[in-house]
Design a protein that fits this description.
Shape: globular
Strand content: 15-25%
Bound molecules: adenosine-5'-triphosphate, magnesium ion
CATH topology of the largest domain: Rossmann fold
Number of helices: 27
CATH class of the largest domain: Alpha Beta
CATH architecture of the largest domain: 3-Layer(aba) Sandwich
Number of domains: 5
Oligomer: single chain
CATH superfamily of the largest domain: P-loop containing nucleotide triphosphate hydrolases
Helix content: 40-55%
Largest sheet: 8 strands, mixed
């Protein structure tokens, strides 16, 4: 592609940003205005028109998926793979640095990433050792404390000691935790950044090397960088690198994880001479969708203020559907999906977005019932599943015997008669000696400090790991995984679990071997073994991709993980008070604004058609709740909305204080003596709500969601229903 072609599909401000001479740039613009597109074209421009080597460019994206897409897009624009280019998330890039410079970073060569689940286990163990009971000192609270401090770049040593009991206790947990991680060679997510930031500060020569290597740094989704990420960026950029930051203050949705919108305001002070570019045309959504998004976000204060317009079509109204309950909501969504597919659209043009992971199960069930293939991002993540974490733990131990978190997970999984007492003894010994659990166990066996039985179980576990580790070099990754699954007995172990669960776990272990078989290393560094590379990518990737990546499937994800993406058809499910906005946020104006930004992110994912759905009653987390429609729906200009009814679509101004559901009679229930949404009682199944009726007269099929018995389809004349 030549220069004019590169600029061909860009509007004037976009083209200007792409072809600007080297300098700091802040591209501040609303959703769908082409920020990411500009970033990718800018890289292509630098490489192709300015003769900059891909080797000199670092691009930071928000997810690993976005990184892969960026690389693919660049390859398309340039016609060649931009080898040497560094593109990844802050965490991924930091990990790469630490892997290369493990010695300078004072880490063992095979350090492992500690994910949030393992982090909690480790903290629980520390609490035990410090005699902190879980009721008064929940491990999650300590985890938040530690993570929040790391996100701020603050180590235990930097915390100013106070006499406050809470602070003192948290600090002592933090200290112990840092030490335990160091001994075991474990690095949590916050630590990746903190450690690599320190790596540069403590090694000016190394820093200089990277500063010279990367004169161009480009960051997408800049509004969601936290303190330590921003500090990392500033140190790397130093005085000589050019930084392009791309962001939208209205889409800052990770405040709860330490992201700082203020970094945007701070940018032109920290990077003098920054040219700020605003993009005002939206290319993604219809005018109606855009108007709705603007209507919602206008209710936030303290925005940097941007205008967005589109030259696109007005488009269809946004459909609002009130389900009687979450089942009905899910069924409605699936019926609309069927219609959309019936028009010849692909399934992957559809996304169902929700506020909370717990909402996905009912949606999944409805999709399964209708055999609609779907894929979930986040939630039930492949690499987060119990059986997968177990096999990963064995692989981790093969790489690094001192990985305490991995050892804790599998020393007695599958059960091999190593009891809690033995493990406690090993822990205690490890603490006293300041060594890892593995070396503690070794020493205790040599010193005969374990009972004969315990010693023999522990040593057979250790020799199992050792046997497998001896084959790391000689076997291919999937052969190794297969062997590990066989020798450890994990498959039989999980297969013992009753019913489908056990079978699903076995299937997942098989799937794991397939994942290993097709695994392509992410790093071109020959010193890194494929196993180490795989383990890192499994930890970094958790949640972003499911196994069936290539099937045409409907996408399900939380609103948070939808950032940056776009889909022709979008459903936002559960737009009701207390769910969205989340009940934890309604009392707090700052959090409420973040929820509103999340609504803005959700609405602006839709290109052609948007559905908003909610449930008048919802059973979630085992509790029934009755919520009204979300305030964010009320903030959408009413002319953009259209209420959808079962069987018929009526356009009328929305009334929010609608009559109870049972008053909304549908044609199909006429003459039956019952109405949709009505509560009825059945002699066996008890009470429930009528969801759907097919046919008429005594043979009509009637679908009822019973409070205790779930959804049943019954024939009216035999059902012996009574109105409640
Ligand atoms: P978000 O804030 O959601 O991340 P964004 O600002 O990064 O959005 P992009 O994803 O880059 O926006 O672009 C949105 C859509 O508009 C994409 O499909 C992109 O290809 C298209 N687009 C952007 N600019 C143009 C243009 N000048 N001409 C045609 N299409 C464009
Ligand atoms: Mg983007």
């Amino acid at each position: 592609m030549n220069s004019s072609q590169l600029l061909d599909h860009l509007n004037p401000p976009q083209a200007q940003a792409v072809s600007a001479p080297p300098g700091h740039q802040l591209i501040l613009a609303g959703a769908g205005s082409g920020k990411t597109r500009v970033l990718v074209h800018r890289i292509a421009w630098l490489i192709q028109q300015q003769g900059i080597s891909p080797h000199s460019i670092m691009a930071v994206t928000f997810t690993n998926k976005a990184a892969r897409e960026m690389r693919a897009r660049l390859e398309q624009l340039l016609g060649v793979n931009p080898r040497g280019l560094w593109v990844g998330t802050f965490h991924g890039l930091a990990h790469r640095l630490l892997q290369t410079h493990w010695q300078e970073a004072k880490l063992p060569q095979n350090f492992q990433i500690l994910d949030s689940d393992d982090q909690l286990r480790l903290i629980k163990r520390i609490h035990q050792a410090l005699n902190l009971d879980e009721k008064s000192w929940p491990a999650r609270q300590s985890a938040s404390y530690i993570n929040a401090h790391k996100d701020e770049g603050c180590r235990a040593d930097h915390v100013i000691e106070t006499s406050d009991l809470y602070e003192r206790t948290m600090l002592s947990v933090y200290r112990e935790y840092e030490q335990a991680c160091q001994t075991a060679g474990l690095v949590d997510f916050g630590e990746l950044l903190l450690r690599s930031h320190e790596l540069w500060l403590n090694n000016p020569v190394l820093l200089r090397h990277y500063q010279e290597r990367f004169p161009f740094i480009l960051v997408d989704e800049f509004q969601d960088t936290n303190t330590v990420q921003y500090a990392w960026l500033r140190v790397l950029a130093g005085q000589q690198c050019w930084v392009t930051a791309v962001g939208d203050d209205d889409q800052s949705i990770y405040g709860w994880r330490g992201a700082k919108i203020e970094n945007i305001q701070q940018f032109d002070q920290d990077f003098p001479g920054t040219s700020t570019i605003r993009l005002e045309q939206n290319y993604r959504s219809t005018a109606t969708i855009l108007q709705a998004a603007n209507g919602v976000i206008e209710h936030n204060f303290g925005r940097l203020g941007k205008t967005l317009h589109t030259e696109g079509e007005q488009g269809e109204a946004i459909s609002l559907y009130a389900g009687f309950n979450e089942q009905d909501e899910a069924r409605f969504i699936v019926s609309q999906i069927d219609k959309w597919i019936g028009l010849g659209n692909r399934r992957d043009s559809i996304a169902i977005l929700y506020r909370s992971n717990a909402q996905s199960r009912v949606l999944e069930e409805a999709l399964l019932r209708e055999s609609v293939p779907y894929r979930i991002y986040g939630g039930h993540r492949f690499y987060d599943r119990l059986e997968i974490k177990n096999i990963l733990a064995y692989l981790r131990l093969m790489v690094n015997r001192d990985d305490d978190a991995a050892l804790e997970r599998v020393i007695n999984t599958p059960t091999r008669g190593i009891g809690g007492k033995t493990i406690d003894g090993i822990r205690l010994f490890a603490r006293e000696q300041g060594c890892s659990l593995w070396s503690a166990a070794e020493k205790m066996i040599t010193n005969k400090a374990l009972s004969n039985r315990a010693a023999s179980s522990v040593s057979s576990f250790m020799s199992l790991v050792q046997t497998l580790a001896d084959q790391v070099e000689s076997l291919q990754l999937h052969e190794l995984a297969e062997k590990a699954i066989a020798l450890t007995g994990l498959k039989e172990f999980h297969g013992k679990e009753k019913g489908e669960k056990g079978q699903a776990r076995q299937e997942n272990l098989d799937e794991f071997v397939s994942a290993c078989r097709v695994y392509q290393p992410t790093s071109d560094d020959e010193d890194t073994s494929i196993l180490v590379d795989f383990l890192a990518s499994a930890a970094l990737d958790a949640g972003e991709e499911q196994a069936d990546e290539f099937e045409d499937a409907v996408q399900l994800m939380t609103l948070h993980s939808a950032k940056g993406l776009e889909f022709p058809l979008v459903f936002m499910a559960g737009v009701e008070e207390n769910l969205f906005p989340h009940k934890m946020s309604v009392e707090d104006p700052t959090r409420l604004e973040e929820e509103r930004r999340l609504a803005y992110v959700g609405i602006t994912r839709a290109m052609t058609k948007l559905y908003l759905t909610y449930a008048e009653t919802r059973r979630i987390h085992g509790k029934e709740s009755f919520n009204s429609v979300s305030r964010f729906v009320k903030e959408i200009p009413s002319e953009c909305l259209q209420e959808v009814r079962v069987k018929s679509t009526v356009t009328r101004p929305i009334e929010y204080n609608r009559p109870p559901a049972r008053a909304r009679l549908s044609d199909s229930t006429e003459g039956l003596g019952f109405s949709l949404g009505q509560r009825v009682s059945h002699p066996i199944f008890g009470e429930g709500v009528i969801l759907h009726v097919e046919g008429s007269g005594p043979n009509a099929h009637i679908e009822i969601n019973f409070d205790d018995a779930g959804t049943k389809r019954l024939v009216l004349q035999y059902a012996k229903l009574e109105a409640v």
